[in-house]
Amino acid sequence: MAKAKATFICQNCGAVTARWQGRCDACGEWNTIVEENETGGIGGGPAGMTRGRRKGRVAALVGLSGEAEEAPRVVSGIAELDRVTGGGFVRGSALLVGGDPGIGKSTLLMQAAAALARGGHKVVYVSGEEAVAQVRLRAQRLKAADTSVELMAETNVEDILATLTASRRPDLVIIDSIQTVWTDIAESAPGTVTQVRAGAQALIRYAKSSGAAVILVGHVTKEGQIAGPRVVEHMVDAVLYFEGEGGHHYRILRTVKNRFGATDEIGVFEMGDSGLREVSNPSELFLGERNDKAPGAAVFGGMEGTRPILVEIQALVAPSALGTPRRSVLGWDQPRLAMVLAVLEAHCGVRLGQHDVYLNVAGGYRINEPAADLAVAAALVSSLSGKALPADCVYFGEISLSGAVRPVAHGGQRLKEAQKLGFARAVLPSAGAEAAATRGLGVQEIETLAHLVAHIASAPAQTDA
Ligand code: TYD
Ligand code: MG
């Protein structure tokens, strides 16, 4: 039965089909199915596996208790990066850094490489996308040219591994990018699932066996997935995403998966003329220019992992000329906005059915927390009523479908950050108030959304005098 048979593999999700199809049944993507050679494909194993079956070797079974050491780490000294990795790159682990093309992945990793090299670590940078001269040019721009980073422009995995094992073991290896590497053992074109998977596997095996930390760079499709090889995400120990909005200068490094640390941390950077600069106080970046004359802006006291971040939420509510009014959201969930609008209509008598609603999170930041509900509602009501909210007030709280405002976690930390940045007032759900007792912040407790609407409506109107 061992007749070489071609299989068809979806380049998006890795599903295998027996014949070509226009649409993948597994993930629903169109035109992603490509013919690939069976050996080495998904579900395939090392060549010859089906021939001459060998008897399995008996491995030792051990208990859960016993010696376990803290993962040894290589610390870059770039605080925003080390926070996201959970305290430095773990030796013998593989890490995937994903992001849109042009977002700054190569820049970030070159800076990390230079920082580590300055700290006396041996770093190898493998560039599969750019020629040596191009990488050198970037290194000069980043003032990293004088460091001991070793550079290689190579895309064949066997050649890369041979080079790496020929000299002293590096502490960190950067593969830029995984989509460009290819291995002799798989027959498909570079960039296909089979190639990327086989290449990643070989490099991860190298990481585990040698003890070097290996970073794989991966490009992300416009849908936000690491192009093609989602399989790589499962194989590596940690996945970081580097993201940013077009037209804005800052970039956020986010942990998506981390076997050695927390997954909700972010690192904030700003792209400048000579590379990425760390932003240690991101709130200042996302607050925008506050002014208490303009209606429709509310400051949200948010959290990212262990770090509080204040963000300005801007809303514009305007009478609509359309039969179905427009709902446009940047930086937040569309369904979540629909929910807040529905609760405002149903429980607070705020009529928005004839209005276009635009919602924007300042600075291209993205909020993932339901705690932003209250700030969004405040911004919407403020814009609709034309009454500006006080510029020194923060809002946080989750809104339930019944119109109640629910407390959220880390109230104390959110308030502390607000106070640090000069805010004097906070509007929050009632149970969050005990957290504020210690601080000199003027706290307004809100039990229901209707309560918030009444609170905004009763405030004296600000005039443009
Ligand atoms: P790059 O790191 O090449 O992105 P990626 O590897 O994710 O594709 O970054 C490319 C962008 O960054 C490019 O548009 C130029 C810009 N850039 C700066 O603004 N300043 C700098 O110092 C550098 C090196 C790049
Ligand atoms: Mg690059």
Topology:
Blueprint: E1 6-10, E2 16-17, E3 33-37, E4 73-74, H1 79-85, E5 89-90, E6 94-99, H2 105-118, E7 123-127, H3 132-141, E8 150-153, H4 157-166, E9 172-176, H5 193-210, E10 213-219, H6 230-235, E11 238-243, E12 250-258, E13 266-272, E14 275-278, H7 283-286, E15 297-304, E16 307-319, E17 327-330, H8 334-348, E18 355-361, H9 373-385, E19 393-395, E20 398-399, E21 405-406, H10 411-420, E22 425-429, E23 442-446, H11 449-458
Parallel strand pairs: 6-10, 6-11, 7-8, 7-9, 9-10, 15-19, 17-18, 19-22, 22-23
Antiparallel strand pairs: 1-2, 1-3, 4-5, 11-12, 12-13, 13-14, 15-16, 16-18, 20-21
The structure holds thymidine-5'-diphosphate and magnesium ion.
Magnesium ion is lined by residues 105-106, 129, 176.
Account of the protein in words:
- The chain is an alpha/beta fold and 465 residues long.
- The chain folds into 3 domains: 39 residues; 208 residues, Rossmann fold (3-Layer(aba) Sandwich), CATH 3.40.50.300; 174 residues, 2-Layer Sandwich (Ribosomal Protein S5, domain 2), CATH 3.30.230.10.
- Helices cover 25% and strands 25% of the residues.
- The chain is built from 11 helices and 23 strands.
- The chain has a 9-stranded mixed sheet with strand order 8-7-9-10-6-11-12-13-14. A 7-stranded mixed sheet has the order 17-18-16-15-19-22-23. Strands 2-1-3 form a 3-stranded antiparallel sheet, with no helix packed on it.
- A hairpin with a 5-residue loop joins strand 20 and strand 21.
- Helix 9 runs parallel beside helix 11.
- The chain is globular.
- 43% of the residues are buried.
- The structure holds thymidine-5'-diphosphate and magnesium ion.
